[in-house]
Specification:
The complex is a heterodimer of chains A (about 100) and B (about 500). Chain A is mainly alpha-helical and about 100 residues long. Helices cover about 65% and strands about 5% of the residues of chain A. The chains are: A mainly alpha (about 100), B alpha+beta (about 500). Chains A and B meet through helix 2 and helix 3 of A and helix 2 and helix 3 of B.
């Protein structure tokens, strides 16, 4: 799972976060360090698709939250990944 | 590093910078950016540019990049020639044992070709490295020869034998084109002899009549064509289908496959310029050689002086030195010259900026390159070829419903009568409800944009002023005088046409 959009959605599923918090969170749970360019390319794409939206902020750091459409999309993608993981593990055990 | 990354963010489209620039800079302040981050930002910036640039811009950018690459390769590559020959490996019957057999045979044979005795024989037969041999020991000539002898295998076309070498390629790089070709031919022949020996050895080690004998490969030599300058060969290697296939895969990975055509077109054209530069360099070298052969030919020397990059640089340096000396002699003239130049450049830039904004660039704030203006072409009996003009409301609705464009706005200029401080006729615009969103205006400098409930119904609704704080809700009524005077380019107030 190295798709930046999924990683960002998974990070925001835990609560609202700004860019730096997302980078730290993703590094913590997926051991992947997203570069600033990749992170903001993913944020722009997700915002354009309506899967995340910016929160009101008076500071330079801009927090984002996941929308219900984004949550649905994440659930679908994770369910697909989960199926692959389960089948793979079962086959490994059998082999 | 932060400064370098911030500089690179200029590569991103202006609307992206407006939207995310502030928070992106905040992120850069929080993290400790490295070279990988810089490359990451550069890659994403290029991606966005390729995604948003027009065909012409991509062609130009890739053309410049290709020409730079070709130019750098042409002018930095040493004056050497490369000659290439090959040995084709003929496929045997069963695929599985063939691959390791072929590889081991080729490797053993090549080891013998590059053995010391074999190299000495090649150097002596072809009179290579005469200068090195005259001044230093043979080992020095061998040391020079090692990096100039190249050998690699080219995979076959069949997918099942992807790792199987279909051809073994031999190349030799040398300062003399004829000797490079002779030596490559010699290399190839020596390699072929060694391969024949290896095959015979492998065959003798097998049991006579065993099926393993059928997997032994057969080899065929391909003679080297005339040697080409190393620069040309380097540039040519960038035009191989494999390179284009890799670029296509990269674009597909970035979801930008549809932009491949201008990238290839621009890059290919740029590389062609690079090849021409290499050819020019080769021509200059040949002219120089001819000059040396035929003694002192004034005309040839003149050509070399004109085309040689080092001469250009010398002349430029001479000019700069002369200019600095002249300026030091008369400081008043120097100050006047600098001020005049600064004023001239400043004025030129300012005038061009205004002309660009007013005439050349679409007068919209968001992504001007994607902005087009639609005209109706009205044919009449007197003007059968048609005349460009405005379109009807019905046409506008039809075009908008067709959805060929992401959005379509309409306007119509009218004369309106105003009361209040400014009375009399003024010019005004009737606009469709999406006019400002197409224009890319998020916040007006004066007044307000349309409210959502004002756009909810259609039909011949009342005209209503949108600039000025207190508009009169009654149809066709007076406008605020301030908005008439302060409207964009004095064109008058803006109206909503329901």
């Amino acid at each position: 799972m190295s798709d930046p959009t999924l990683l960002v959605l998974a990070s925001l599923a835990d609560g609202d976060k700004h860019g730096y918090a997302m980078v730290q969170d993703i590094q913590h749970f997926a051991n992947i360090r997203l570069g600033p360019g990749t992170l903001y390319a993913a944020i722009a794409r997700l915002e354009q698709r309506g899967w995340i939206r910016p929160m009101k902020s008076q500071y330079r750091r801009q927090p984002y939250c996941i929308t219900s459409a984004g949550r649905r999309y994440l659930e679908e993608q994770l369910a697909g990944l989960n199926l692959v993981v389960k089948i793979g593990l079962t086959r490994l055990k059998r082999a | 590093m932060r400064r370098a990354i911030r500089f690179i963010t200029r590569l991103y489209p202006s609307n992206w910078r407006d939207r995310y620039g502030r928070e992106f800079n905040a992120l850069l302040d929080d993290v400790n950016p490295s070279w990988r981050d810089l490359l990451d930002v550069l890659r994403r910036g290029l991606e966005m540019r390729v995604a948003t640039w027009t065909f012409r811009k991509i062609v130009t950018a890739c053309g410049i990049a290709g020409a730079l690459l070709g130019g750098v390769l042409s002018f930095t590559a040493p004056d050497l020639y490369v000659s290439i020959a090959a040995i084709r490996v003929h496929a045997a019957q069963s695929p599985s044992p063939r691959h390791p057999t072929v590889l081991s045979i080729l490797e053993n044979a090549w080891d013998r070709v590059v053995a010391r005795d074999s190299q000495i024989a090649l150097i002596e037969r072809n009179h290579l490295y005469d200068h090195e041999r005259a001044t230093r020991a043979m080992d020095y000539a061998i040391e020079r020869m090692d990096p100039h002898m190249l050998f690699w295998t080219v995979p076959g076309k069949e997918k099942t034998f992807n790792a199987k070498p279909d051809s073994a390629v031999v190349a030799f790089v040398y300062e003399d084109a004829a000797k490079a070709r002779l030596t490559t031919r010699d290399f190839n022949a020596t390699l072929m002899d060694e391969l024949t020996r290896e095959i015979a050895k492998a065959r003798s080690a097998m049991t006579p009549g065993s099926p393993a004998q059928t997997v032994l490969p057969k080899f065929e030599t391909i003679d080297p064509p005339p040697a080409v300058p190393l620069a040309v060969e380097l540039v040519r290697s960038f035009s191989s289908p494999n390179v284009y296939w890799s670029i296509l895969k990269l674009l597909a990975e970035m979801e930008l496959k549809h932009r491949a055509l201008p990238v290839f077109f621009g890059g290919g054209a740029g590389l062609l310029v690079g090849v021409l530069l290499a050819a020019l360099r080769r021509w200059i070298s040949e002219v120089r050689e001819r000059q040396q052969d035929s003694g002192n030919a004034y005309a040839l020397r003149r050509i070399i002086t004109e085309f040689s990059p080092s001469s250009w640089l010398d002349m430029l340096l001479q000019d700069v030195r002369f200019a600095v000396r002249s300026l030091r002699r008369s400081p008043f003239l120097a100050c006047t010259t600098v001020l005049t130049l600064a004023l001239g450049i400043g004025l030129n830039t300012g005038v061009f900026t205004v002309i660009n904004a007013v005439l050349f660039r679409a007068r919209v704030d968001r992504d001007p390159d994607s902005f087009v203006r639609l005209y109706a072409q009205n044919s009449t009996p007197s003007v059968p070829q048609g005349q460009l003009g405005g379109m009807s409301l019905a046409d506008y609705r039809q075009y908008r419903a067709a959805q060929s464009l992401s959005d379509l706005a309409a306007w119509h200029q009218i004369e309106a009568t105003l009361g209040g401080e400014v009375s009399g006729d003024v010019r005004a615009l009737l606009v469709s409800c999406n006019f400002f969103s197409v224009y890319g205006l998020d916040r007006p400098k004066l007044g307000r944009l349309f409210f959502a409930n004002e756009c909810s119904h259609s039909g011949a609704g009342p005209a209503e002023p949108v600039c000025g704080g207190s508009s009169d809700p009654r149809p066709g009524h007076q406008l605020e005088s301030s908005c008439v005077h302060r409207g964009r380019r004095g064109a008058g107030a803006l109206f909503r046409h329901g």
